Amino acid sequence: MSTLKEKVKELWNQFESKINTFKMQIKDLQAKASSAGEETKIKISSKIEELKHQQEEAYQKLHSTLELHIKETKEQIEKLKSEAAIATEETKSKIATKIDELKARRDETYLKLQSSLESKSNEIKAEIEQLKTRAATAIGEAKTKISHNIDALKNKLSEGNQRLQSLLEANIEEMEAETKQLEEKAATATEEIKRKITSKIDEIKTKQKEANQRLFSTFEYNLQMMQDEIKELEVKAAKASEEAKSKITIKIEELKEKRETVSQKLHTGSIK
Question: Could you name the CATH architecture of 1-119?
Answer without folding.
Answer: Orthogonal Bundle (1.10)
